[in-house]
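pasting for the record
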Amino acid sequence: MSAVRLARGFTGRDVIVKFAGCYHGHVDSLLVSAGSSALTLGVPNSPGVPKGCTADTLVLRYNDAAGLREAFAAKGDRIAGVILEPVVGNMGLVPPSPEFRAELRRLTRHHGALLVYDEVMTGFRLAYGGAQELLGDDPDVTVLGKIVGGGFPVGAYAGRAEVMSKIMPAGPVFQAGTLSGNPVAMAAGIATLKELKANPPYTRLDRMGATLEAGLRDAAAAAGVPVQLNRVGSMWTLFFTATPVTDYDTARASDTKRFARFFWAMMDRGVYLPCSQFEAAFLSAAMTDADVSRTISAARESLAEIAAGG
């Protein structure tokens, strides 16, 4: 919410571009074609959100560079910013294509719009510098949460000095919050980030992720169950579809009933996955190689059970 307000205040424009399947919190203007639970329940637009709140929200298809070009050609002088999950976790795990990322940066710069990366999920998870470090990108504004507070309720947003100077008290764009600077959350966040910097888990997590990916692919192939597995570092999703998943529409083509059977079969074997086809799964630094092996074994049995049951 604050990052969107900043983009509008900095540019003097109103239109915000978001992508179908990306979730950016429950702020009214962005609760359009949201992912996560909204996608699972088939209710991408929540009751209680007036049409006027979303009148200046332009929804595009993720990974669609041509559609992005068309939108900027038509409304480039009205677009304040583009907000996205650089690696999506709310329609399941969907990575961005190189062409899509390049066009995002080129078009926003050319038209004077801000590029906003929502790294609430990916920040400090995929790398110490988040998805933008892993991908080598340079957004104008970054949104953070979760890990930045060590699990306590806090959010943060940051950008280059020219942009952030517009925020009160240095500038005119309003900013306030009851929990801003909460000392417990700040202490927990600092401790967490110090630990991640001193003992980075990212190489080990990526290795474990690669092992899990290979094991799940082999298990699905052995069972004859068509799946797609998307993974970036410690984030992954097993989609029950034969079609590559690159955006909201291809994610929605997944067989959610089959996923539900897989979820409960895994639960019966002691592995608790996200309970929605459209929620990314994460490996944790607390996990071990034995946990990965156990998950692969459980998946082999579960997928075989699904195949036998149709």
